[in-house]
Amino acid sequence: MLLRTFRYFLVFLMFCLISCSKDDLSSGVETSPTAHLYASSSSGEVKRYDINTGEITTYNTEASNATGIKFSSEDDGFSLVSAENARLETFTGISLIQSGVTVDISSEFGSPENLENPKDIAINNNFYVVSDNTDLDDDETTAEGRLFVYFRNGENYILRNVVTTRFKVWGIEFVGNDLYAAVDETNRLAVYRNFLSTHTLNRIITADKIVGFQGLLQMHGLDFEDGTMVLSDIGEIESNSDGAVHIVEDFVAKYEAAAPGGFIQIDEQKRIAGGNTLLGNPGDVVYDAAYNVVFVAETANGGGRILAFNDARDKEGNLAPDLRYGFAGVTSLYFHTE
What we know:
The chain is mainly beta. It has a single domain (2-337), classed as Methylamine Dehydrogenase, Chain H (7 Propeller). Helix content is 9%, strand content 44%. The chain has three helices and 26 strands. The strands form six sheets. A five-stranded mixed β-sheet has the order 7-3-2-1-26, with no helix packed on it. The protein has a five-stranded mixed β-sheet with strand order 13-14-15-16-20, with no helix packed on it. A four-stranded antiparallel β-sheet has the order 4-5-6-8, with no helix packed on it. A hairpin with a 2-residue loop joins strand 11 (145-153) and strand 12 (156-165). The two termini are 16 Å apart. The relative contact order is 0.14.
């Protein structure tokens, strides 16, 4: 029943936003007791969209060029990485802030300031891994990136080690203890088995396996839940209309079945792409299995938007989004329900 209600809610939003042209997310339809979509941005603005009430709360932070946002009930707040501040930062106690307002907030604690060009966060228990795709040798012909491994001890982030990858890295995601990493400027996805226990030193590491995805041009974002992996394709970076989202059910089995250096074929995926989708340079993606919905941080089309597509495991093609909301500079998303 909740799933059906949520679908009707998203359809309502689409027609409301198109016909009314209002920045309004309200409908009065209840999905779950808590349904919050968090969005970070290049300006440092973080927005929380309350799906149940339609209220939008804006948190002005000094974490500009921020991405990789993650919400934690234990923190009563969110963490993200700021390129401007060169660190991982955590903001707490947001339930004490009135909903629907715009407020300035400061981080409660953060990591050492050692990041250069961070792109994403992946969390496994008390370990926070941050991807950074800085060109370390200033040579465009040699690709490399870094994975910063922080251990969180209460309100302290301790840098355990930094590993260097043999490619530029963008989005990262844990599936169990394995870390998957998008190989920037390609259609390939690398995996590091038992990443945290295997790679404990500062050194150059080699991926255990790399697999490409047919029909995908340049992978950036990825999100995994309940057996399904969702990947974003920015297409040609100069275009604001050729992006796509790829949805791979039974992901682990398909990835393992593919030969190293081989491909997951297009008929093993579902692909959302085309002019109706409003996908140009989709960066971060969030998949929620319970609602069967994909949220997308679209960075180029329309100046920047948040998009959502229903029935993610069931539909594909040139679909119009079921939700679209303008947010210039949007970089990453996190959907929190209780």
